[in-house]
Structure formats: structure tokens, C-alpha cells
Q: What sequence folds into this?
């Protein structure tokens, strides 16, 4: 299990282009569909928690899955596996990054991958929204579009949005009780 | 700057980077370029470009790169660990908290709320990625749009995110001018 965890986290990290969220569909494929050691809602919860704390979301998600599967040992394995690929690649590139930055083929490949990453994340959002719509509470359902709008169209710090979510949900839970 | 100071510098950066991505760039710039003068502005711009071209989260790539410049491989490791450690720690704390208290209605409600908010945040990041992808150099790229649509359709048919990214990357090399 330990080596498998390392291998999976390493390979996911090696292809985390276009921001951290792309790890979610990849985690879904490996841990839910292939290995069946995680459920869809567990992954959603982990993503939500990883989002609500500082640091890199991709690292937080992989560390939490490592924790769930294998405790602190899993955390260490996942952490090392996740930070190694960027480290290795950057060490290689830093010798000659001018060549790298200006390489036409790499640039075109990256543009293509960017479009794919966008598509995969939208696909993820669509499937998560379908799960969300099954919830009863209107407030819960509204939080997604509200935070979407706030992040895109205002300069409100994500921390504020997250804290507000917590407070508002606590209030609603108390009021309903 | 010794390793401990490097760790601490990136620990501070890691601590304030909630919500991920480009929001932390000004923070990094202020700390590393302006305040501590660890790298020049030209190097800084290079990092940003490279960070978007190499796998891994922005914070991790930046930390690794700067760490490499300052103290070689050890520096890269130390800076990277510093940047992610607070997130890793808080993620686990949060996870344990929710696992312990989720039977309480209020806590469960908060978790659902965080799930919803994170969907909104993730969707926002997808939109940002796509806008950047479709409108590079202030011109609309029909190729990018096509690759996006193709990737989306592909992602519904084949449940392998990596394959979709790979194919789109290849097509990017072929189709972009």
C-alpha cells in the first residue's frame, strides 16, 4: 500500500498543470474508480477542507488522502511524493530556462493542456453540482453560485468567504434546531 | 540567508496563501523581491512563467525555484516544506475535527456549506483558466475553444484525465500556429 500510494501521488503531482484543482479528477480516477478506497463524498469533503486552509490545495488534498488511508505515515509518503516532481523538474530546467521558456513545441503543448485542464475542471464542477442539488437546504445550494460570483467579480479574500460560510451555516443549523 | 531563515520566509508565505493561485503573487513579490531581495524582478518574472509551465502548485514551484537559487537542492527542499507545512498541519487538524464531530448537525451543516463554497471557488478558477486560455495576447483563440470543447467531450467518454490532457497537448502542438 505504501509504495502504491507513493507511486500514485508522484504521478498525479507530475501532471498537475494549470493549478491545483486538476488533482481532484485524478484522485477520483485512482482512488475511487480504480482502487475503491475512497467515496465521492469523502473526496468532496477533503477538497473542501483542503481549500479552507492555507498552502497548496493539491498538496493538502494528497496529504489528507494519505492520512485517511495510512495515518501519519500516509501523510509523509504523500507529502514527499507530491513535492518531488516539481523539485526534480525545476532542478533540471533551471540550468537552461531560457531554452525552456522559448521552446515552441513546449509552449504549444502547454496551451493545449491548459484547454484540457479547463474542460476537466468544468466537468468536475458539473458532477459536483449534481450532487449538491440533491441537498435540501437552499442556503447550501446558494453558497456555490454566491462564492463563484464573489471570487470572480470582487476582490474579497477567499478566507473571508470561507469564514462567512462557516458562520452562516452554524447560524442556520442553530436556527433550525 | 541560511536554511532556517529560508524555511521561515516561505513558512510565512505559505501561511497567507489561502485560496491558492495568482492571489499570492503580490505577496511573494513583496517578500522575496522587494523586501528581502532574494531574487531580482527579472528572475521573479521567470519563475512565474516557469511555474505555469511546469507541473506543481504555484507556491511549490516558486519556493523550489527560489530555494534552488539561494541554497541549491537543500534550499529548494527547505523552502518548499516551509511553504506547505502549515497547510498540511491545518488540513489534518481540520480533518480530525470534522471526523470527530460530524455527527453534530451544526458541524455537518458547516461541512456541507464548505463543500458548496468550494464548488464555487473551483468553478471560478476554471473560468479564469479558460479566459486566459481563450484570450491570450488579447486575441480570441478559436483553436483553444475547440480544444476545450473536444477535451470536454473526451472527458465524458473516457474517464482518464491524464489521457485527455495528453491528447489535448499533442493536438496543441499540431494545431497551434
A:
Amino acid at each position: 500500500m505504501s509504495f502504491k500510494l507513493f507511486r500514485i501521488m508522484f504521478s498525479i503531482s507530475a501532471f498537475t498543470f494549470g493549478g491545483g484543482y486538476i488533482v481532484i479528477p485524478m484522485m477520483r480516477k485512482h482512488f475511487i474508480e480504480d482502487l475503491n478506497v475512497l467515496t465521492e463524498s469523502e473526496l468532496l469533503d477533503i477538497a473542501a477542507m483542503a481549500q479552507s486552509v492555507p498552502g497548496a490545495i493539491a498538496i493538502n488534498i494528497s496529504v489528507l488522502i494519505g492520512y485517511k488511508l495510512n495515518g501519519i505515515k500516509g501523510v509523509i509518503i504523500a507529502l514527499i511524493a507530491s513535492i518531488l516532481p516539481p523539485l526534480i523538474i525545476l532542478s533540471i530546467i533551471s540550468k537552461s530556462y531560457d531554452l525552456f521558456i522559448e521552446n515552441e513545441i513546449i509552449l504549444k503543448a502547454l496551451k493545449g493542456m491548459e484547454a484540457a485542464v479547463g474542460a476537466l475542471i468544468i466537468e468536475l464542477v458539473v458532477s459536483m453540482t449534481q450532487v449538491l442539488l440533491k441537498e435540501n437546504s437552499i442556503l447550501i445550494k446558494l453558497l456555490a453560485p454566491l462564492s463563484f460570483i464573489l471570487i470572480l467579480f470582487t476582490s474579497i479574500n477567499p478566507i473571508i468567504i470561507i469564514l462567512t460560510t462557516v458562520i452562516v451555516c452554524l447560524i442556520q443549523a442553530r436556527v433550525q434546531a | 540567508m541560511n536554511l532556517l531563515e529560508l524555511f521561515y520566509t516561505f513558512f510565512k508565505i505559505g501561511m497567507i496563501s489561502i485560496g491558492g493561485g495568482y492571489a499570492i503573487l503580490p505577496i511573494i513579490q513583496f517578500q522575496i523581491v522587494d523586501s528581502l531581495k532574494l531574487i531580482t524582478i527579472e528572475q521573479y518574472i521567470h519563475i512565474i512563467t516557469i511555474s505555469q509551465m511546469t507541473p506543481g502548485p504555484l507556491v511549490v514551484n516558486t519556493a523550489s525555484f527560489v530555494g534552488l537559487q539561494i541554497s541549491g537542492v537543500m534550499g529548494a527542499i527547505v523552502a518548499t516544506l516551509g511553504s506547505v507545512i502549515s497547510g498540511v498541519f491545518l488540513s489534518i487538524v481540520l480533518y480530525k475535527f470534522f471526523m470527530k464531530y460530524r455527527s453534530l448537525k451544526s458541524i455537518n451543516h458547516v461541512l456541507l456549506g464548505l463543500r458548496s463554497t468550494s464548488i464555487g471557488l473551483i468553478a471560478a478558477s476554471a473560468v479564469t483558466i479558460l479566459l486566459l486560455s481563450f484570450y491570450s495576447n488579447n486575441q480570441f483563440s478559436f483553436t483553444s475553444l475547440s480544444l476545450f470543447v473536444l477535451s470536454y467531450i473526451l472527458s465524458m467518454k473516457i474517464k482518464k484525465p491524464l489521457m485527455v490532457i495528453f491528447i489535448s497537448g499533442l493536438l496543441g502542438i499540431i494545431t497551434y500556429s
Observations:
- Chain A has a mean pLDDT of 91.
- The first helix of chain A runs from residue 2 to 14.
- Chain A touches chain B through 105 residues (CB under 8 Å).
- Helices of chain A lie at 2-14, 23-34, 40-51, 57-93, 97-102, 104-132, 138-153, 158-176.
